[in-house]
Amino acid sequence: MVFGLKPKAKPRLKETAGPVGDASLLDELGMYHLWYLERRLKDELARASRTDGVFSLICWRLRGLPGEAISDELVTKAAEIISGALRSYDVFARIDEERFVAILFDAEQQPATTVAFRIKGDMQVQMQTTGRWQAGVATFPHDGVGGDSLIQAAFRRLTEDAHAPA
To answer: How many domains does the chain have?
Structure first.
């Protein structure tokens, strides 16, 4: 497991099929399950290595006050904003209580950064939170050639965004 998280025992599944036609890949919010995102990341790493391809991994996080948890309403709204802004074939999932991640296929660093910060801005404007949304982008092969290295680079960029002026 790339993200180091175990899947929940019995996730609720969305009743309608998603873009790939299999409802078991999606959760109740229409986001892909984390195990599926990890699988697609592994497949994309292999494909991009073979073909000298490129793709980007984007992470978003709500940095709230200490001890503050992201509410179900905010998660639902974040899922709507992210899914509405990504292409139908990009894959996105929720990592944990406050972080979301997406794979942007065939997206280089600059276009992926534009997408990441546009979505971040949309979430900040459209969602009433006491915290601030952050975004981080890592691109294959520039930021790493393995799943762990790409994820760590994207998480580092989240931290860099946290220290950027508002």
So the answer is: 1
